[in-house]
């Protein structure tokens, strides 16, 4: 499944009128359902304009994309617990995901995901 396209489509719909794009940072919790979402509204050059104020309920919509994406990658070299998307109205898209062992240790005192215990 093309989860990156779904993430891009989701955040494209979140760009406010007074911004050219959004940079969204996701910290994903691998032992319990949930994630932390922060975002910045930016101009066409990626310069900060204001903090994103994601609407209520957004986490449920985004969870429907993130949970299956994370589950599919947990036992692969592409596993991730952090992601960042940079989405612009003009169609420029960059989505990065990575495994942050220190973040995992800070939450669970191990750098393993829940499937490797």
The shape, in one word, is elongated
Largest β sheet strand count, sense and barrel closure: 5 strands, antiparallel
Q: Tell me the fraction of residues in β-strands, as a range.
A: 25-35%
From N to C, what is the helix and strand string?
HEEEHEEH
Head-to-tail CA distance between termini: 26 Å
Low-confidence stretches: none
Number of helices: 3
| Percentage of residues assigned to helices | 25-40%
- Main sheet: which strands, in order across? 3-2-1-4-5
Using the CA coordinates, give the radius of gyration: 15 Å
- Please count the beta strands (DSSP E, at least 2 residues each): 5
Could you characterize the architecture of this molecule?
This protein is an alpha+beta fold and 117 residues long. The chain is built from 3 helices and 5 strands, in the order αβββαββα. It has a 5-stranded antiparallel beta sheet with strand order 3-2-1-4-5. A hairpin with a 4-residue loop joins β4 (82-88) and β5 (93-98). α1 packs antiparallel against α2 (58-73). The radius of gyration is 15 Å and the shape is elongated. The relative contact order is 0.22. The mean pLDDT is 90.
Describe the secondary structure blueprint for this structure.
Blueprint: H1 3-12, E1 21-28, E2 35-42, E3 48-51, H2 58-73, E4 82-88, E5 93-98, H3 101-108
Antiparallel strand pairs: 1-2, 1-4, 2-3, 4-5
Helix pairs in contact: 1-2
Which tags fit this structure?
117 residues; alpha+beta; five-stranded antiparallel β-sheet; 3 helices; 5 strands; 28% strand
Please summarize what this structure is.
The chain is of the alpha+beta class and 117 residues long.
């Amino acid at each position: 499944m093309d989860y990156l396209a779904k993430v891009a489509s989701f955040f494209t719909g979140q760009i406010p009128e007074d911004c050219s794009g959004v940079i969204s940072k996701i910290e994903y919790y691998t032992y319990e359902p949930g994630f932390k979402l922060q975002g910045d509204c930016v101009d066409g050059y990626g310069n900060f304009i204001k903090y994103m104020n994601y609407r209520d309920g957004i986490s449920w919509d985004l969870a429907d994309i993130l949970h299956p994406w994370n589950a599919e990658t947990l036992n692969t070299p592409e596993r991730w617990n952090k992601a960042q998307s940079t989405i612009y109205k003009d169609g420029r898209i960059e989505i990065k995901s990575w495994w942050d062992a220190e973040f995992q240790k800070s939450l669970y005192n191990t750098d393993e995901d829940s499937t490797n215990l």
